[in-house]
Amino acid sequence: MDDFWVFGYGSLMWRPGFAHVETRKARLHGYRRALCIHSHVHRGTPDRPGLVLGLDRGGSCLGLAFRVPGDLEGEVVAYLRERELVTNVYRERRVGIRLEDGALVTALTYVVDRSHDQYAGRLDVEHAAQQVSASAGQSGPNVDYVRNTVEHLKALSIRDHWLEAVAARIAKAGDTL
Question: Which of 73, 75, 84, 100 is catalytic?
Answer without folding.
Answer: 84
